[in-house]
Design a protein that fits this description.
The chain is mainly alpha-helical and 207 residues long. The chain contains ten helices and two strands, in the order ββαααααααααα. The chain folds into two domains: 71 residues, Orthogonal Bundle (Tetracycline Repressor, domain 2), CATH 1.10.357.10; 122 residues, Tetracycline Repressor, domain 2 (Orthogonal Bundle), CATH 1.10.357. The chain is elongated and about 55 Å long.
Length: 207
C-alpha cells in the first residue's frame, strides 16, 4: 500500500501495514500529477529506463522533488502503470465466471503481454519485481498474482491445467513472453505462438 505526507506523493510502505493517509497540498499535488504525466510520456517514447532527471526537468521540478514523491524508479513506474493494472484486474473479474476457464486464463495472460510489451523495459522490471515484495512495483504485482491465481485455480479445477503449475511461475513465463515480443516488434504473431507453446506445457502430463 502507499502513504502520503504533506508535500509528498505516495511512497511504498511495508506490505500489510496500515498507515494513515494525509492529503497533499495543492502545489504538491500539481507537481505529482505533472511528474506522472511526463513519466508516462517518457516511458512510452523512450522506455522505462529513461532519465529521471529529464522527467523532473520536463515536469518543471527538481530531481529532489521527484524523489520526495517517488523514492526510486520502480515506485514511479508503479504509480504510472496503476491505471493499466486496475484495468487488468477488472478484466480478470470479468473473466472470473467465464464458461471456459482455460480460455479465460489465456485471454488474461494475452492482455498482460499486450500491456507489458507496450513499454520497453517494463516486462523485465515486472520479472524482477515479482520476486521482491519490497519493490516499488509490489503494490501492482501482488494483486495481479492474486487475480491470476484465481483464474489459474479455476482452470486447474476444470482439469485444463496441470495441478503443479504455480501462479508465480506462470507470471514469470508471461513476462518472459512479453519481453520476447518487445524485442521482436516485426513479428506480430510471436505472442500467440509462444502462448500456444506455453499452453501445451500447462496441459502436458506431469513428468
Amino acid at each position: 500500500m502507499a502513504t502520503e505526507t504533506a508535500g509528498q506523493g505516495p511512497v511504498a510502505s511495508a506490505p500489510g501495514r496500515a498507515q494513515d493517509v494525509r492529503p497533499m497540498r495543492a502545489d504538491a499535488r500539481r507537481n505529482y500529477e505533472r511528474l506522472l504525466a511526463e513519466a508516462r510520456t517518457a516511458f512510452t517514447a523512450h522506455g522505462t529506463d529513461t532519465s529521471l532527471e529529464d522527467i523532473a526537468r520536463r515536469a518543471g521540478v527538481g530531481i529532489g522533488t521527484l524523489y520526495r514523491h517517488f523514492p526510486n524508479r520502480t515506485a514511479l513506474m508503479g504509480a504510472v502503470f496503476q491505471g493499466e493494472v486496475d484495468a487488468l484486474l477488472g478484466y480478470a473479474r470479468e473473466l472470473a465466471d467465464a464458461p471456459q476457464p482455460c480460455a479465460a486464463l489465456v485471454a488474461w495472460l494475452r492482455a498482460i503481454i499486450t500491456h507489458a510489451s507496450t513499454y520497453r523495459g517494463l516486462s523485465r522490471a515486472l520479472m524482477t519485481a515479482s520476486s521482491d515484495e519490497n519493490s516499488g512495483m509490489a503494490r501492482c504485482c501482488v494483486p495481479m498474482r492474486e487475480a491470476g491465481g484465481a483464474l489459474l485455480t479455476r482452470a486447474q479445477q476444470a482439469g485444463a491445467v496441470r495441478p503443479d503449475v504455480s501462479i508465480g511461475d506462470l507470471m514469470q513465463l508471461t513476462n518472459g513472453i512479453a519481453l520476447a515480443v518487445e524485442e521482436s516488434p516485426n513479428d506480430p504473431q510471436l505472442a500467440d505462438r509462444l502462448l500456444t507453446l506455453t499452453l501445451s506445457g500447462l496441459k502436458g502430463e506431469k513428468r
